[in-house]
Amino acid sequence: MPGVRVAGVAAGLKPKPGAKDLFVAELAEGSCMAGVFTRSRCPSAPVDWCRRILPNGRGRVIVVNAGNANAFTGTAGDRTVEATAQAAAALFGCPVEEVYQASTGVIGVPVPPDRIGRALPAAISALCADAWREAADAIRTTDTFPKAASRVTEIDGTPVTLSGIAKGSGMIAPDMATMLAFAFTDAALPPAVLQRCLTRAADRSFNAITVDSDTSTSDTVLLAATGQARHTPIGEADDGRLRAFRSALEDLCQDLAQQIVRDGEGARKFVTISVTGARSAVSARRIGLAIANSPLVKTAIAGEDANWGRIVMAVGKAGEPADRDRLSITVGGVRITRSGQPVADYDETPVAAHMKGSEIDIAVDLGIGRGRATVWTCDLTHGYISINADYRS
Amino acid sequence: MPGVRVAGVAAGLKPKPGAKDLFVAELAEGSCMAGVFTRSRCPSAPVDWCRRILPNGRGRVIVVNAGNANAFTGTAGDRTVEATAQAAAALFGCPVEEVYQASTGVIGVPVPPDRIGRALPAAISALCADAWREAADAIRTTDTFPKAASRVTEIDGTPVTLSGIAKGSGMIAPDMATMLAFAFTDAALPPAVLQRCLTRAADRSFNAITVDSDTSTSDTVLLAATGQARHTPIGEADDGRLRAFRSALEDLCQDLAQQIVRDGEGARKFVTISVTGARSAVSARRIGLAIANSPLVKTAIAGEDANWGRIVMAVGKAGEPADRDRLSITVGGVRITRSGQPVADYDETPVAAHMKGSEIDIAVDLGIGRGRATVWTCDLTHGYISINADYRS
After folding, report:
1. For residues B100 and B35, what is the distance between their CA atoms, to the nearest angstrom?
2. Per residue in B232-291, pLDDT tens?
3. Based on the domain organization, do A230 and A286 belong to the same domain?
4. Which residue, A206, A235, A262, sits at the end of a domain?
5. Which residues in chain B are contacts of A392 at CB distance < 8 A?
6. I need a surface site. Which of A100, B15, B342, B367 has the fewest CB within 10 A?
7. Helix (H, G, I), strand (E, B) or coil at A62
8. Do A297 and A324 reside in the same domain of the chain?
9. Each residue of A199-252: pLDDT tens digit?
10. Does the beta carbon of B346 lie under 8 angstroms from any beta carbon of chain A?
């Protein structure tokens, strides 16, 4: 990726000695930034910091640690973020406002003083153009595999690259949950254009996934544009020449978001929920998430049980307009309901077979409008309980 | 209970032969009714029926079956309810509008024709004043114990009795979830007064519990007043002479609601969450439920892990006004946080000891207002997964 060098090194924040837990990205001078963050009312110190500097629109460095979320750490947490910004700014010769930060890990434990600052020189030595695997490793917590994706697209005929890494597997819900994603492009786009492209792509990807409905204090998606691609200048996000780029960005974000769901804590099945015929797109997404977050739907999927009554229950509890007698439910392509009851010749055999697979498709048509949305989730298994009943001990 | 006779018999709706699955209550002529129902947009046929007849305010019979929810059963489901009403009305010599009904069990499976009607004569033969144990048994589904409670109070010096039974252990959330409760009193109160008393009591009991955040299609709470007590007439719900009665009703409902939580599917711990200092009582309840419904909080409790950072996360995601730096969290009476960080001398030892108990107390003070609420929930264990991944098979 022209204009980006990355590194993943060990800073001693994860309990396991020598584990990679610090990701640093160096961006070419003049790089532009966009970001979306958690909607939590108790955001982490790095989220507060990023929100404060984002209006400047420029970025030279991204510093991310795993092993400690630096959330609910009071003024000490703010000081850690400021110290990290100053250390990185001195090393890279840039203003502190160009140092983006994110942290993930346990909440409420102070970050040991200067642990990040002391590891920065080693990270800088390790910076190179192709250390994406190490970078993706360094931001993992309970993730079982590193997450990365790449796309090649064009702007007005000039080739442009998009690459990103992400982490997350629990505390995953819309509004960014405990997930971090960092995307990079060599496109030359001003911050306002970049932000509009990212916000739209995030709504259809990171904000359309859920593992457990829990939204974290730390969710952060950053998109950096290094401007190394020599395409014609673009001043508006809805410029037709950005169509391929926007589409590739949405595709990249969906790829990363779906990797997070596939790595959902304890997940054994990947579930796609398509909602159509709702009163509006917002209503469709809420209904999709009510299904995706229902513990009873998720445990039925874990049990490979074609218990579609729980889908009816979840639609009913979403609080969105619905008409029982127009509701159509399809699982694995098999229509199950019509006119408020099971179809006359309903045969559970193909549905039961579909439930045994690892990719589950649920489609719900409300029959009352044109709103549509797709959300992705996973099943709720004993593995989730084991991981989370025993996270700190 | 003067004016009430009950029976619990087998109608062949539960798969296990001979299992009690039909509850019938006969109410003295002139009994008044109040009810609160699920807010699901896909309510069951019996819920639709009860909503339709409730404005009449009178009741002579309550017929409840377990084993089949008669939900999402289309027009066939409506016909089952009408047939049951006609059969009961003929046997008891009352209008069909005085036959209240509720059903609980699997969704989307038609009730076998006339199974309920055919069992009614046997139920009537079994009616007696003290078959409460059989009645509470007949409405169980995954419940591991029958749920009943009783209170003696007074209206203007005249003794009045309140008794109730309930069921529910999964698909439990505010707005009545999959729970049924039937309360009876010999008080002589008109329907409008009764309804206001019940609505208020339900808000502070059945609507303040959650097992899994899933709201069912079938939730029903009915309160019948037989008018056998010879107290002075009361025409207004806010009459001071009703204070003891209202308090006893709230107490009875909380007792039944807490029994449901204690029997939560897979539950091993009973959790009381007190929220104070919120912007309003509604805001306090939403924050309490965000904590109570968080899979990560619930699994931490299951794991006896004093991971209070997840409480911060849940407060943050509730979407209600909160200020990280005014938030105070207390577990088992031990203050953990102050000014947006752990208290200086925080010692986890007593908190860890509290987490090993079976009664967990979490108190959150927002520090920004006077709104308060208490909600009750249970932990999320392997047992919940086992029960729900394998419910129908």
Report:
1. 10
2. 999 999 999 999 999 999 999 999 888 888 888 788 899 999 999 999 998 999 999 999
3. no
4. A262
5. 305, 307
6. B15
7. strand
8. yes
9. 999 888 888 887 666 666 777 889 999 999 999 999 999 999 999 999 999 999
10. no
- Co-location of B327 and B243 in the same domain: no
Contact flag A74-B302 (C-beta cutoff 8 Å): no
Contact flag A309-B40 (C-beta cutoff 8 Å): no
* A167, A170, A171, A175 alpha-carbon torsion, rounded to 10°: 50
Q: What is the domain count for chain A?
A: 2
Same domain, B182 and B213: yes
Whether B358 contacts B268, CB under 8 Å: yes
Catalytic residues of A: 178
Whether B212 has its CB under 8 Å from any CB of chain A: the answer is yes
Between the alpha carbon of residue A101 and those of residues A175, A177, B39, the distances in Å are 18, 17, 43
Query: CA-CA distance, A218 to A199, in Å (whole number)?
Result: 17
Domain co-membership, B163 together with B245? yes
Measured in angstroms, the CA of A239 and the nearest CA of chain B are apart by 35
* Domain finish residue from B204, B234, B262: B262
Using alpha carbons only, give the angle A310, A313, A318 rounded to the nearest 5 degrees: 130
Residues B336 and B235 in one domain: no
Say if the Cβ atoms of A316 and B171 lie within 8 Å.
Answer: no
Cross-chain Cβ contact A316/B175 below 8 Å? no
Using a CB–CB cutoff of 8 Å, tell me whether B343 touches chain A: no
How many angstroms separate the CA of residue A14 from the nearest CA in chain B? Answer: 17
Domain range spanning residue A46? 4-262
Determine the residue among A38, A42, A81 to mutate to test chain B binding: the one whose Cβ has the most chain B Cβ atoms within 10 Å. Answer: A42
Going edge to edge, which strands form the sheet with A180-185? A32-37, A220-225, A180-185, A158-167, A147-155
- Cα Rg for chain B, rounded, in angstroms? 22
Which tens digit of pLDDT belongs to each residue from B112-165? Answer: 878 999 999 999 999 999 999 999 999 988 788 898 999 999 999 999 999 999
CATH number at residue A285: 3.10.20.340
By the CB < 8 Å criterion, does A129 face chain B? Answer: no
- With beta carbons less than 8 A apart as the criterion, state whether B61 and B99 touch: yes
Closest partner residue to A309 (CB to CB) among B107, B110, B324 is B107
SS3 category, A159:
strand
B215 vs A317, A381, A390: nearest CB: A317
Helix (H, G, I), strand (E, B) or coil at A90: helix
The b-or-e profile of B289-303 (16+ CB within 10 A means b, else e) is bbbbbbbbbbbbbbb
Are residues A89 and A162 both part of a single domain? yes
Tell me: do B252 and B379 sit in the same domain: no
Q: What are phi and psi of A336, to 5 degrees?
A: -105, -40
* A29 interfaces chain B, CB cutoff of 8 Å: no
CATH assignment of the domain containing A143:
3.60.70.12
B317: nearest CB among A215, A325, A342:
A215
Q: What size, in residues, is chain A?
A: 393
Q: Do A324 and B386 touch (CB under 8 A)?
A: no
Residues 6+ apart with CB under 8 A from A81: A45, A46, A48, A49, A70, A101
Q: How far is A281 from chain B (nearest CA, A)?
A: 18
Provide the residue count of chain B.
393
Locate the chain A residue with the closest alpha carbon to B291.
Answer: A214
Find the mean pLDDT for residues B97-118.
Answer: 89
Residue A176 has pLDDT above 50, yes or no: no
Helices (H), A232-347: 243-262, 281-293, 295-302, 309-317
